[in-house]
Specification:
heterodimer, A: 253 residues, 6-stranded mixed sheet, 4-stranded antiparallel sheet, 10 helices, B: mainly alpha, 0% strand
């Protein structure tokens, strides 16, 4: 049985001025699963990821057509509350980007923006989020220290905690481990596996072994097109498209 | 994945095909030695035991290195796993060849005995199956292995027929018991070699198509 989709795109196209960066992308992202997007640099995977919380709106020359449905509502429609959308669809970037504030304030920032004022409730959210992001034990005694003093791996998990604090439904991860060492990477991968119990995760990665390890579904993109989408096991064991085969066996890219 | 990996994988595949061929030749020569009662040829086959073990270890080491260094995926992964399985099956076939060759000296002084007809026929069938697996492995054309199920059935029938024939011989003339028992063992080794050829064919099929099949 196909799992329930949380995000669906229908004939999604995106142009950067004259460059047709996403071409007729139609896909379904399954709820409470991890979906990986792979493909060579410039294939459009990060652009596609940024469509899911309308981060591309911030770029002037971008034009989008087609539909992106989140919980059956088209997020491209003019009436979409983008702030609320980005609360529902959180994002973790390639390089850890904590605010130059304390560990506590980093996590409390989002809930405060969304109206939580009560200190006891904020304390609860901060602890829960840090626990969910598997970093609580490492920072519980230094909540008031600057987040910039944490290691790269800790900073990235703090950023995940910051995303979790606003109770998203979907977490987008754009190469979340590319700036991390193997041990920190392993911790993030383990965390992703735990996160999917409560959240839907979409991850862009250049590391194919990582995509194979962490994801349930994988989409291979090339020159703005979604070439193949399917269960990760099938994509990495027996891809149906020659382009996918050639990419994941390193014959190009 | 680097070009170096694909060159190394191609070489490894070629060397694996040669190893399977080497094992196949050991089996073929051992049956010849048995039928011709040629102890010299038998000894030559037995002496290849160390070589087949050495090639097995070398090929396995090269395979493990490629996995550790490159973590191959998709078709590359399937080629690697197929190679590992082929090596194991081929080593077993080579060792059956050695075991058959070793029997020649044990039956030399036994009363004259005509080797049962099915034995030679079985050997031809099994060797042809191994030949076809090598062709499928090298060319990735599966036509030659598509009828392996019925060919394996034919070999099984020969084995049962030979077994019954030998029992009758031995009951009628107890002096043939030693040679008869060895003939049964040879037939059993050939039948097992046929099974290994089927296993190799299953793996080659997986390597080429990505789909698992069972040859019964």
């Amino acid at each position: 049985m196909t799992p329930e989709p949380i995000i669906s795109t229908r004939d999604l196209n995106l142009w950067y001025s004259d460059t047709h960066a996403l071409q007729s992308i139609s896909m379904k992202i399954s709820k409470n699963h991890v979906t990986a997007l792979i493909g060579p640099s410039g294939c459009g995977k990060s652009t596609l990821l940024r469509c899911f919380n309308r981060l591309n709106d911030l770029i002037d020359c971008v034009k989008i057509s087609g539909e992106i449905l989140l919980d059956n509502e088209n997020i491209q429609s003019a009436g979409t509350d983008v702030v609320l959308l980005r609360k529902k669809v959180g994002m973790v970037f390639q390089k850890p980007n904590p605010f130059p504030k304390s560990v506590y304030e980093n996590v409390a920032y989002g809930p405060r923006v969304h109206g939580v004022k009560d200190k006891a409730e904020l304390d609860k959210i901060v602890e829960q989020s840090l626990r969910h992001a598997a970093i609580w034990d490492e920072v519980k005694d230094r909540l008031n220290d600057s987040a910039l003093g944490l290691s790269g791996g800790q900073q990235q998990r703090l950023c995940i905690a910051r995303t979790l604090a606003v109770e998203p439904e979907v977490i987008l991860m754009d190469e979340p481990c590319s700036a991390l060492d193997p041990i920190a990477t392993a911790k993030i991968e383990k965390l992703i596996d735990i996160l999917k119990r409560d959240y839907t995760v979409i991850i862009v990665t250049h590391n194919m072994q990582q995509a194979a390890r962490v994801s349930d579904y994988t989409g291979f993109m090339y020159l703005g097109k979604l070439i193949e989408f399917g269960q990760t096991k099938q994509i990495f064991e027996n891809p149906q498209e020659d382009l996918t085969e050639n990419y994941i066996t390193g014959r190009f890219g | 994945m680097s070009e170096k990996f694909h060159i190394e994988l191609k070489d490894l595949k070629q060397d694996t095909a040669e190893m399977v061929q080497f094992s196949r030749d050991m089996l073929s020569e051992s049956v010849h030695a048995l039928i011709l009662q040629d102890p010299v040829m038998a000894k030559q086959v037995s002496s290849k035991k160390k070589h087949i073990k050495d090639i097995t270890l070398t090929l396995e080491d090269r395979t493990y290195s490629l996995i550790a260094l490159y973590q191959p995926m998709a078709k590359d992964m399937r080629v690697i796993t197929c190679i590992l399985k082929m090596i194991t099956a081929a080593e077993r076939i080579g060792r059956y060849g050695k075991d058959i060759a070793n029997m020649v000296k044990h039956i030399q002084d036994q009363p004259e005995f005509t080797q049962p007809v099915p034995l030679q026929h079985m050997a031809e069938q099994v060797l042809k199956m191994i030949d076809d697996v090598i062709i499928a492995f090298e060319t990735e054309h599966l036509e030659v292995i598509k009828d392996f199920s019925s060919r394996d059935d034919a070999i099984d029938s020969l084995w049962h027929s030979l077994f019954r024939e030998m029992l009758t011989f031995m009951m009628e003339n107890p002096k043939t018991i030693t040679r008869g028992t060895y003939s049964i063992m040879v037939a059993r080794y050939l039948e097992r070699s046929g099974d290994h050829a089927c296993k190799m064919a299953e793996n080659v099929h997986y390597m080429v198509t990505g789909e698992r099949i069972e040859i019964k």
